[in-house]
Every structure is written in structure tokens, then in C-alpha cells.
Amino acid sequence: MAGAVDLLRPDYNPNRNLLDESLVGPLSFFMRAAACALAATFLVVLVGLWRNLHRSGFLVASYVLIGVVVISLFVSALFPPDIWPPAGSHPALTALIHLVAAARFYALLIALLVTLPIAFKHDEKWRSLSHVTLFLGVLTLASQVGFILAPVSLRGLVERGSGVVILAWLLFAGLHLRQTTRSTHGTPA
User: Fold this and answer.
1) Rounded CA gap, 16 and 44, in Å?
2) What gap in Å lies between CA 78 and CA 67, rounded to an integer?
3) Which residues of the chain have pLDDT under 50?
4) What is the pLDDT of residues 116-137, one digit of tens each?
């Protein structure tokens, strides 16, 4: 959703521009809606994992991490990412909230993509997804290091790559949840 709004910009450059740079003012709704949709997706995955995996310490840690990711995304959605905030608001506070929420989101996501593969290894139905999840965790870490080290002219591209990795993990987890749920309820997978 955020990427589609970027296409409307006359100075659009996916290598340089970050996703939220154009989503200010009236368009901030799209970034906030995308954050809510991502939070809801993580929440659905959390519930699905809770219902389908055998409990372990690493799984409980993963649940906590997913829960904090969901909360971080919802908090981000409450505060519009305006470069030119309305009169009377505190732009430094809003910018700080988004910076802290983004840093927490990626740190927790990296931790999650390390604890979750260990939890998957303890469950026979999920063992096959443990290597993919660990690989995507390493890619998430690499993309965050790349974002920090990349020149400003390439940060938009690195940010989009990081988003693709996160969406890929959500897709793999969702598909596996669907297969596991079908086989658990007697429907052929």
C-alpha cells in the first residue's frame, strides 16, 4: 500500500526515498493502515502458532516477541508520521516514537527469527520451516546492517528489500499454518 502511493510522486526514486517519506499529511492514513494491517497479520500468525505448536520455552519467548511487535506496530499507527505536523503538536515526540518503534520492531523481529526456528525444531510438523525461518532471520539482520551502512542514495532500496523478507516470512508461516491446520482437522493438505 505504501509503495503504491510512492508511485504517485513526481520525484519518485525507489533507491533513495524511504517508504514513509511521501506518506505525510492526508496520505499518512495509508502508512498507518499498512502498520495496522501488518500488526493484524502478525497477530493472526501468533494465534495460529499458539493453536498449532507444542509449547516450549523458545516458543513462549517467540510469542512474547510477536506480541511486542504487534504492540509496536499499533503504537506506530496511532501517531501520524508527519514531516510537517499540525500546529500545537510535538513533532520531535512523534519522530522519536516512530524511530523507537521501528528500531524495536526490527530488533524484536531479528530475535524472533532466531528463537522461532529453535521452537520449530521441537515440533515435527514445523521442523521443515525452521531452516527457512532462520535463513530469513539472517537476511533480516543483514538488511538492517545494510540499511545502516548503505549510502543515503540506496537506503530506500534496502528498506524495500527488508520489507520483502518480512513479507516472505509471513507468507511461509501463513501457508504452513494453513497446511498444518488442514492436516490436523482431517482435511487433506
Assistant:
1) 33
2) 17
3) 1-2, 189
4) 888 888 888 888 888 888 888 8
Q: Which of 183, 45, 18 is nearest to 99 (CA)?
A: 18
Is 79 within 8 Å of 133 (Cβ atoms)?
A: no
Would you tell me how many other CB atoms lie within 10 Å of the CB of residue 7? 9
Distance of CA 26 to the CA centre of its chain: 23
Number of neighbours of residue 9 by Cβ within 10 angstroms: 12
Cell 516477541 identifies what position? Answer: 65
Contact 63, 94 (CB under 8 A): no
12: left (phi over 0), alpha (psi -120 to 50) or beta: beta
Closest-CA residue to 25 (of 89, 77, 82): 82
- Specify the residue for cell string 524495536: 104
- What size, in residues, is the chain? 189
